[in-house]
Amino acid sequence: MSADAPTVLVDLSQGVLRLTLNRPDRLNALTEDMHLALRAGLQRAHDEDAVRAVLLTGAGRGFCAGQDLGNRDPRNWTEPPDLGQSLERFYNPTIRLIRRLEKPVVCAVNGVAAGAGANIALACDIVLAARSARFVEAFAKIGLVPDAGGSWTLPRLIGEARAKALALTAEPLPAETAERWGLIWKAVDDAALLDEAQATAQRLAAGPTRGLGLTKRAIQAAATNDLDTQLDLERDLQREAGRTADYAEGVTAFLEKRPPRFTGR
Ligand code: LHQ
Questions:
Q1: How far is CA 124 from the centre of its chain?
Q2: What architecture is domain 8-205?
Q3: pLDDT tens for residues 165-185?
Q4: Ligand 1 atom 10: the closest Cα is on which residue?
């Protein structure tokens, strides 16, 4: 791969913005340049009405090996780096963008997802993984703590016992176990992964975008709300959804016994 190849490939087709992490020889380990490119893609998804779903994947045999450790050689330090600043500048904005984007984000984990790479995948809304892929909470191997939202996401998805075991041992978790545990939506045959993920994203992109976005907001809010607060939130969001053109279209299509033509408005 040439040195000036884009570190994230961006393609918009049929409402799906596909973002492909593109440093395959490093298993798509993240550099500053890549962080900025990924963030720009996610920001575009926020800003453009033409984008109605995002598909995140990786080029080559890995999804993402987390932070690129190649340019963090401790033998060259004069003093230890401020990793908190790395998170503040690069990782946290990306995780917040994925979670706050009121459009579905599908992740196709095409191969190993390690460290922050695993946790970026787990921040997405619908995660499909190739059967050969594995998730590695690699932080413990280098003396770090799970970041990119992992310490929040893992216990919510799979409970404290499994979250702690994964994070403390850094043992690789095969995609099929990840599916069985509810860490991801689905493990699929390697050869079928991208087609299935693209079809999923395309189906969502043709859906009632605002209703889907509000659904995402409601489900995420449930992680910290009590039932009364959540019932109030559902009332408010349903009020908003009920005013969309897509709600009117959905009901009309049902009554006319035809498929709906949602426009995302
Ligand atoms: C890599 C990497 C990599 C560079 C594979 N960097 N080259 C946040 C804030 C600030 C700082 C610190 O970190 C963080 C968040 C984090 O993400 S910390 C966690 C960082 N990631 C890791 O510790 C994972 C390191 N990689 C691995 O453990 C393995 O490579 C995995 C399990 C991902 C894959 O193993 P294999 O399938 O056996 O592949 P491999 O190890 O042979 O890797 C292939 C190549 O990719 C190899 O290069 P080479 O020149 O030998 O072909 C690796 O050196 C390179 N690579 N990960 N993170």
A1: 2
A2: Alpha-Beta Complex (3.90)
A3: 999 999 999 999 999 999 999
A4: 83
